[in-house]
C-alpha cells in the first residue's frame, strides 16, 4: 500500500469489518470510514438514505420552516399590538369606545322598534274595526301590516347581530389585553409554544334571549311553544300576531311586562328571540333592569332548549304526544 493512501473501512452484511483501498460496489451505499496511514479516522460517510427516509427528512424540514414562519408572524403581530397601544388604558379605552358605539346603534334600533310597534298597532286596530263590521281588511291595510311586520323582524334580527358583535369585540380585546400584558413583562415569542392566537369565534354566537334552532324542523315545532311562552309571561294582552312575530301591548303600568317573540333567520341560521319592554317611565325602566325581569330572557332560552331535548328524546316513540314547554311561574298573568 503506497504511503499516504487512504484506507477504507466498512462492514459487510454479516457484521464483519473489512479494510482496503476500495469498497466493493454492493457496500458503497451502506456507509464507511476513511482512515489515514496511521489508522486514524479522517472521514465518515453515512449510508445513503432510503426513499422513505428522504421523504421524512423533507417533511421535517418543511415543518421547521413552517414553525419559523409562525413565530415570525407572531412577533410581527406582537409588534403591531405594542405600536397601537401605549398602555392597558389605551387598549381598554378603544374597546369601550367600540362597545359604546354598538350600544348606541342598539338604542337607535330599539327606538325604531317602538315606533314600528305603534304603527303596527294602529294598522292592526283599523283592520280589527273592519272585521267587527263583518268586512275584510283592505288590500292597503294588509300590505301595511305585512310590511311593518317585516320591518320589525328585520330590526330585531339586526339587534341580535349587534349583540353578537359586542361579544366578538369583547373576546378580541380580552385576548389582546392579556397578550399586551405579557409583552410588557418582556415576553417574546421564540418557538411555536409561545405563539398565542386569538380565540376562534364560533359561527353562531349565543345572544341573551335568543335561542338558536338546531334545524328548521325543530324551529317549526318550537315556534308555537315560543308564542305560548310569551303569552304566559307577559302581563299585557297580545296585540300583534304575524307569521313570524308575536307582540303584546305596550306596558301601561310601572310593573307591566310587554314581550315580543320573533322567529329570525339569517345566513341559514334560525333563532327564536324574546324582547322585553316596560313602561316608558323612570319607574318602568328601573323595573326592567331588575333581575326578576332580566331573567326572563334566560328562562325563555332554557325553556326552548328543554323543549328541544324533550322532542329529540321522544322521536321514535310510537305514541309520543306534543311537546309541552315547561313554564316557570314568575308572577306574570295569563292573557
Strand-helix topology:
Elements: E1 7-11, E2 17-20, E3 32-35, E4 41-45, H1 51-84, H2 88-132, H3 139-184, E5 210-212, H4 216-233, E6 238-241, E7 245-248, E8 258-266, E9 269-277, H5 282-288, H6 291-314
Antiparallel strand pairs: 1-2, 1-3, 3-4, 5-9, 6-7, 7-8, 8-9
Keywords for this entry:
four-stranded antiparallel β-sheet; about 325 residues; 3 domains; five-stranded antiparallel β-sheet; TATA-Binding Protein; alpha+beta; Helix Hairpins; 9 strands; disordered C terminus
Please give a structural write-up.
Helix 4 (216-233) runs antiparallel to helix 6 (291-314). This protein folds into three domains: 7-45, no CATH class; 83-194, Helix Hairpins; 211-314, TATA-Binding Protein. The protein is built from six helices and nine strands. The strands form two sheets. It has a five-stranded antiparallel β-sheet with strand order 5-9-8-7-6, with helices on both faces. Helix content is 52%, strand content 14%.
Provide a brief overview of the structure:
The protein contains 6 helices and 9 strands, in the order ββββαααβαββββαα. The protein has 335 residues and is an alpha+beta fold.
Question: How large is the count of helical segments?
Answer: 6
How large is the share of residues in beta strands? 5-15%
User: In whole angstroms, how far apart are the ends?
Assistant: 114 Å
Class by helix and strand content? Answer: alpha+beta
Looking at CATH, which topology of the largest domain would you report?
Helix Hairpins
Low-confidence stretches: 316-335
Mean pLDDT, to the nearest integer, reads 84
What's the level 1 CATH class of the largest domain?
Mainly Alpha
Using the CA coordinates, give the radius of gyration. 36 Å
Q: Kindly give the count of domains.
A: 3
Instruction: Please write the string of helix (H) and strand (E) elements.
Output: EEEEHHHEHEEEEHH
Number of E strands: 9
Shape: elongated
Amino acid at each position: 500500500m503506497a504511503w499516504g493512501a487512504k484506507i477504507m473501512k466498512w462492514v459487510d452484511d454479516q457484521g464483519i469489518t473489512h479494510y482496503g483501498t476500495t469498497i466493493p460496489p454492493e457496500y458503497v451505499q451502506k456507509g464507511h470510514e476513511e482512515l489515514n496511514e496511521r489508522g486514524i479516522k479522517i472521514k465518515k460517510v453515512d449510508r445513503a438514505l432510503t426513499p422513505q427516509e428522504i421523504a421524512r427528512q423533507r417533511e421535517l424540514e418543511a415543518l421547521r420552516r413552517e414553525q419559523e414562519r409562525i413565530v415570525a408572524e407572531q412577533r410581527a403581530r406582537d409588534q403591531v399590538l405594542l405600536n397601537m397601544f401605549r398602555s392597558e388604558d389605551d387598549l381598554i379605552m378603544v374597546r369601550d369606545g367600540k362597545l359604546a358605539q354598538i350600544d348606541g346603534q342598539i338604542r337607535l334600533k330599539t327606538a325604531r322598534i317602538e315606533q314600528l310597534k305603534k304603527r303596527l298597532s294602529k294598522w292592526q286596530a283599523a283592520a280589527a274595526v273592519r272585521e267587527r263590521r263583518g268586512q275584510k281588511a283592505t288590500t292597503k291595510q294588509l300590505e301595511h301590516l305585512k310590511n311593518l311586520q317585516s320591518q320589525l323582524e328585520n330590526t330585531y334580527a339586526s339587534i341580535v347581530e349587534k349583540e353578537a358583535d359586542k361579544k366578538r369585540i369583547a373576546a378580541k380585546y380580552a385576548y389582546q389585553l392579556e397578550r399586551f400584558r405579557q409583552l410588557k413583562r418582556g415576553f417574546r415569542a421564540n418557538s411555536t409554544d409561545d405563539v398565542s392566537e386569538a380565540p376562534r369565534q364560533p359561527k353562531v354566537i349565543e345572544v341573551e334571549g335568543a335561542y338558536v334552532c338546531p334545524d328548521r324542523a325543530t324551529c317549526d315545532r318550537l315556534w308555537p311553544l315560543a308564542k305560548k311562552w310569551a303569552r304566559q309571561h307577559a302581563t299585557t294582552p297580545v296585540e300583534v300576531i304575524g307569521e313570524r312575530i308575536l307582540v303584546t301591548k305596550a306596558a301601561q303600568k310601572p310593573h307591566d311586562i310587554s314581550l315580543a317573540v320573533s322567529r329570525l333567520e339569517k345566513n341559514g341560521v334560525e333563532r327564536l328571540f324574546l324582547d322585553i319592554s316596560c313602561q316608558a317611565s323612570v319607574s318602568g325602566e328601573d323595573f326592567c333592569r331588575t333581575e326578576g325581569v332580566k331573567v326572563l330572557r334566560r328562562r325563555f332560552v332554557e325553556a326552548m332548549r328543554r323543549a328541544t331535548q324533550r322532542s329529540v328524546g321522544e322521536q321514535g316513540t310510537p305514541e309520543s304526544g306534543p311537546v309541552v314547554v315547561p313554564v316557570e311561574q314568575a308572577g306574570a298573568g295569563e292573557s
